[in-house]
C-alpha cells in the first residue's frame, strides 16, 4: 500500500493532492493511510507530498526557464509566495538561490 501511495502522489504531483483524494484513488480508508505511511517512512503523507513537490520544483528550476510563479502554478501551490516559503523550509534556500547555485556549479566529468 505504501508504494501505491507514493505512486499516486508522483502521478498526481501537479495537482492539489489531499488525503481524501489518495484514499478515494486507492479505495482505502483515510484513517489508516497516514499512520501506516508515517510508521513506514517517518513522515506524514502531507510532508511527503510537500517534499515531492519540492523535488519536482528542483528539476524544473534546473531544466527549464519557467518563472517561480509558473512553477508554483504548475505544482498547484496556492501562491508563488507559499511556494517560495515551502521550498525554503524544505531545502534551506530559496528557489532562486537554488537555481543560481546549481547552474553556476561546474559539472563533474
TL;DR?
The protein has 109 residues and is an all-alpha fold.
List strands and helices in order, with pairings.
Blueprint: H1 2-11, H2 19-26, H3 30-41, H4 45-63, H5 68-74, H6 80-91, H7 95-104
Helix pairs in contact: 1-4, 4-6, 4-7, 5-6
Mean pLDDT: 91
Give the H and E element order. HHHHHHH
Q: How many β strands by DSSP?
A: 0
Using only C-alpha atoms, the radius of gyration works out to 15 Å
Distinct helical segment count: 7
* Biggest β-sheet strands, sense, barrel: none
Shape: elongated
Our measurement of the CA-to-CA distance between the termini, rounded to an integer number of angstroms, reads 39 Å
Structural class: mainly alpha
Estimate what percentage of residues fall within beta strands: under 5%
Helix content: over 70%
Features:
109 residues; 72% helix; mainly alpha; 7 helices
Structure description:
- With 109 residues, the protein is mainly α.
- 72% of the residues lie in helices and 0% in strands.
- The protein is built from seven helices and no strands.
- The chain has helices at 2-11, 19-26, 30-41, 45-63, 68-74, 80-91, 95-104.
- Helix 1 (2-11) packs across helix 4.
- It is elongated and about 45 Å long.
- The chain starts with a helix and ends in a 5-residue tail after the last helix.
